[in-house]
């Protein structure tokens, strides 16, 4: 077999041999980009006041979008904090957290409280959970369901945890009621 000669003018030039450093350079660039994205996301969350409250499963429901627009800016003297998650509203330092689009609750033996400033805007709330630091309520008979967690402290005490529900009733009552507590 004859020795290989110079490449013919119609053949492409041979590919350069891979360099070991090229792979490491790509890895370093990928790590730098990932770190930049994390730093940027953290800065955005800090600037917008996002505290990491996760959206409920159906938080993107159009009824939740309408509800968020109707919610008060101040609740029991607590200012509303901007949130990035769909269907989420927070007042104070997460003293009151509302998540629209929560799982709909069926018949239950848990306490059910009709709360509202008047009969037209009364909302049935099920006291879903209670601890020594907070209480969680879920709307009953409305879809999407609304979950409200009230943490004790400051202006909110164990005996006044339903006060925020009164101020939320007008906005929440816009979600049609299909069942009522008995």
Q: What is the terminal separation in angstroms?
A: 97 Å
What composes the largest sheet?
Answer: 8 strands, antiparallel
- Measured by DSSP, the beta-strand proportion falls in 15-25%
Helix-strand category: alpha+beta
Strand order within the widest sheet?
A: 1-2-3-4-8-7-6-5
By DSSP (H or I, 4+ residues per run), the number of helices equals: 3
- Average the pLDDT over all residues and give the rounded result: 79
Runs in which pLDDT lies below 50 for 5 or more consecutive residues are 29-50
Helix content: 25-40%
SSE run: HHEEEEEEEEH
Q: Label the overall shape.
A: globular
User: Could you give the count of β-strands?
Assistant: 8
Q: Tell me the Rg in angstroms.
A: 28 Å
Write structural notes for this entry.
The protein has 182 residues and is α+β, with helices and mostly antiparallel strands. It has helices spanning 20-48, 62-70, 163-172; strands at residues 74-75, 78-81, 88-91, 96-102, 112-115, 123-130, 134-139, 145-151. An eight-stranded antiparallel sheet has the order 1-2-3-4-8-7-6-5. Strand 2 (78-81) and strand 3 (88-91) form a beta hairpin.
